[in-house]
Amino acid sequence: MIDLHLDPGSGVATYLQIAQQVKHALRLGLLMPGDRLPTIKEVVTKLAINPNTVHKAYRELEHEGLVVGRPGMGTFVQRSLGGAPPSEYVRLRHDLTQWVRNGREAGLGQEDLEALIASVLNQSFREETA
């Protein structure tokens, strides 16, 4: 099951943080079609937030066709995201983890690493569309 958390300093609305985390879990293969999301009550208890916030996040995911609510049963994943099998994500995550370790050993901080990743992503996608 997905472990939801909040970053109050992110500047991102709480319901969007929840929806984004579910989407990340779908993309990474951590949630698969048929899996049940935590109930609204479970999320409210864990995160100490208003039930309407969780409901709004789940409604947003349902509107995008990613989940479906079943009255009395919960909210279930309807389809996944991502363009590669979960095994590829595992391999790439391992490689990226090593890359981050190398960067940290070279003296780079989080913002430095994020800037490098963003520049490589931007360059890669620009080259792809050129």
Automatic annotation (TrEMBL):
InterPro entries noted in UniProt: Tscrpt_reg_HTH_GntR, WH-like_DNA-bd_sf, WH_DNA-bd_sf
Assigned keywords, A-Z: DNA-binding, Transcription, Transcription regulation
Signal peptide (from-to): none
Database matches in Pfam families: GntR (PF00392)
Domain HTH gntR-type: 12-80
Sample GO molecular function, one term: DNA binding
Keyword Signal: no
Protein name according to UniProt: GntR family transcriptional regulator
Organism for this UniProt entry: Nonomuraea solani
Lineage, opening ranks: Bacteria, Bacillati, Actinomycetota, Actinomycetes, Streptosporangiales
